[in-house]
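Known limitations

Structure tokens in this collection are predictions and should be treated as such. Users comparing against experimental data should check residue numbering before alignment. To illustrate the layout, the record for DUF2264 domain-containing protein is reproduced below. The input appears on top and the generated tokens appear beneath it.
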Amino acid sequence: MKQPASQQQTRSEWLSFLIKIATPVLENGAKGTLKQNMPIEGPERDQRINVSHLEAVGRTLSGIAPWLELTGLQGEEALLQSNARQQAQLTITSITDKNSPDFLHFDAGAQCLVDAALLALAILRAPHALWLELPEANKKNIIEALTSTRKITPVFNNWLLFSAIIEAFFCKAGITHDSMRIEYALRQMLQWYVGDGFYSDGPVFHADYYNSYVIHPFILAILNATSHTRKWKSLTPLQLKRSQRYCELLERSISPEGAMPVTGRSLSYRCGNLHALGELALTNQLPTTLPPEQVRCAMTSVIKRTLGPENTFTEDGWLTIGLCGQQPSLAEFYITTGSLYWSTLAFLPLGISPDSTFWSNPDTQFTSQKLYSGIDTPADKAEDE
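Generated tokens:
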């Protein structure tokens, strides 16, 4: 099926943004020049310089992984994918090789746990491109790097899921794993569910985007990676229902102009707050209330709104701190240049075939556009209605 011109253009726009974001990280990572060439900005730059490079790699790979794994691409996109795939493999090899100038210590600080987890998530999303195709010596280095994070005690919030997903990757790969870290994280998250698709991020609820950044996608990924063990299989339908409800609300929060509420921390992750929506689109598990083409249009509006403004990138192509352009005052203490690459997690649907309904169906208005243009639209319903 030939893709309509307008939808071809939309996918090309998404791909252009993703390649623009990922290129400095992957090009330098593949050459072993990431430490040499990556600028590091942030309010606590000197204290966090040892973790920023791992942030950039883990986040970039986790977002680009589904596209790297996709088969059947043709033409220019296939060439771009082949190049990025090779660069990604070389980058993983470089950061885990003790003889490389870009070797990164995965236990250099608590923050390393976050991005080791994102690397594990990337491998789960692209098992062929980022794991099975690697030489055994490189796999051994990766296992050693990820295992070293076990000495890091996660913060008592969404960080429990970071420890859990590393063990879930080991479980999926047939490597000796610590099932208690998985069980503890899932049991604790069940206790933190507050209703209508939302988890509190720890004992107290926070009005931010961490349900999308981390909680829903990570729980689903952990359950998927450990499904063959059957222990948590019964939780999957419940979690999927909760994720679907959360994504209904996330889509409704996108204004007709592609803006979203500017509440909570980590807003400099830009469109990375679409992670949960992109995850359900990628796995073809969107709720029936959200047609794929509607989600595509909603996500596109946010991607353009947050990545299109001037000064989003430096002259050398690196992301700058901000939600909409360069806004360094928006950075929390833990934000550095590497942190900003969470924005790649909006691009998971590029791992869907160009012929799928997500990409091939005609453009349509998303929920807020329908309502604010006077279209009669079904009322929203809470989870228990």
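For this record: Residues 33 and 324 are 29 Å apart (CA to CA). The chain has 15 helices and two strands. Please report discrepancies through the issue tracker.
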